[in-house]
Amino acid sequence: MIQEILPAKLNNTYHDRPASLNDTVMVFRGNSVLYGDTGFPAVSEYGPGKLTYLFSIDDTYYYLGTETEIPGYAYVTLRDIRERTSRHDCFAVMTAHHLEEWYRRHVYCGSCGDKLVHAENERMMYCPQCGAQYFPQISPAVIVGIIDGENMLVSRYNGRTAGYALIAGYTEIGETPEETVHREVMEETGLQVKNLRYYKSQPWGMSGSVLLGYFCELDGDSTIHVDHNELSLAEWKTRQELPDDREKLSLTAEMIQLFKDCGRRVLR
Ligand SMILES: [Zn+2]
After folding, report:
1. 172-210: per-residue pLDDT in tens?
2. What is the whole-number distance in angstroms between the Cα of residue 158 and the centre of ligand 1?
3. N or C: more exposed end of the chain, with fewer CB within 10 A?
4. How far, in Å, is the centroid of ligand 1 from the Cα of 60?
5. How far is C-alpha 195 from the geometric centre of its chain's CA atoms?
6. What's the gap in Å between 104 CA and the centre of ligand 1?
7. What's the pTM?
């Protein structure tokens, strides 16, 4: 999966580290990032613009830059970049994107409207006027592999033309992730499930979330009532019909592959 970059290791501790010319800069424009034949630009190519320290992976240090143009680099969507980079770079850019969104949305205080200031020794924005503190936000969400014998329920979000997803959704305030599983499955498919088994988690910077993967079993009627506000399709597929995972990046794809390979044993 995307976060599996061993023996390399992400160190996301914030410190007010001055940038060196060889350090790496992530420059975003919406859901696109500046990328070239040799990867992400270096500080020396970026020039004198503002830089915010993000994190390191081993001895590579990553900074957030502000939107600009650099000769030899073009904006590539985060979806396309998954096919062009190593898993290491892919994890770096997704994590940087998560932080970039948080920084972009924390310029002014939500309580009093004053300009926020970055804390010196930790990743926190605070308001010198009213004292409010803002820490990076991570939204928990579930991914659900629903199993009925030799079949698994796959879905596709509106607007997508290929590939399969699993039922997924954010945990609401006051809800456990297990309750999210039951609620999202009911909302999106009209199905009931039982025998929930937690599988694995995954940080997913695209949506600013940490994903919690569950397998579970159909409980009762298998007739699907698709919520077309969210999904273009939801249908049962046999193990043989499920696609093979080529990217090996997402928890969704790993869960589909695991059921394809192991069948109902995933529930044990
Ligand atoms: Zn304030």
Report:
1. 999 999 999 999 999 999 999 999 999 999 999 999 999
2. 39
3. C
4. 35
5. 26
6. 17
7. 0.91
The domain made up of 139-263 has a fold known as Nucleoside Triphosphate Pyrophosphohydrolase (3.90.79)
Which carries the bigger pLDDT value, residue 79 or residue 255?
255
Mean pLDDT of 162-168: 93
